[in-house]
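Exam prep: given the inputs below (a chain plus xylulose-1,5-bisphosphate), describe the expected output before reading on.
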Amino acid sequence: MTLQALLFDVDGTLADTERDGHRPAFNAAFREYGLDWVWDAALYGKLLAITGGKERMKYYVETFRPDFRKPADFDDLVTSLHKAKTRHYTSMMAEGNVPMRPGVKRLLGEARAAGIRLAVATTTTPDNVTALLEHSLGAGSTDWFEVIAAGDIVPAKKPAPDIYVWALERMKLAPENCLAFEDSENGIRASRGAGLKTLITINDYTRDHDFSGAAVVLSDLGEPDAPATALSGAWKGQGYVTLESLKALHSR
Ligand code: XBP
Ligand code: MG
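Solution:
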């Protein structure tokens, strides 16, 4: 089986968007609506158990705010809050202050040059993906990805495999011809559920997650002058992830 495509998660994998991107955007939306909901960095780590912003807000109310008197139109409130949150998030991304993680831009460039197909599979809202890519990866970089599978296009979000299955079907690819890149337990459950060999790069929110089933767990993708650390799995690459090392990983 040859390696034909790379499928990337976004939040936590391409960039560290959660703590200083999504979280303050949620808080700004809560303030805008006069709510006393404040998500600090530690609480947000617990809320990440649930993927999807609307789902996360509902989980917060159910689990952490039994005192909150839900209005009759609670679902509408959540929808409005989420629209406001997306507005805050995309304008924050437009400032371009959230960089790609180490090695991401280099590896994407290498894959593109070699004709490897690229896709995104994420639970986040499509506008958020575009904002991050255009302002942090580079203008026009959205077009590098043949398919951007995002948000509510599948009703069941990660850890359900649906978003990966959707992307694979669109690309008419078998999972055996691809590699997935993830950063979280919900993410790898989704990618493995779709039959994808998966490379993990951890971050501060996910370093203690269960990554059993990962082909390899790394600190990050690494750069020639800033090598990555292998945390588990057999990694025979150099100090940084190259297309050649991915092909070797894929064929094992
Ligand atoms: C990402 C998420 C997203 C974002 C918020 O998970 O959980 O919910 O935090 O996005 P993954 P929205 O990286 O596993 O795809 O608010 O746009 O839903
Ligand atoms: Mg992620």
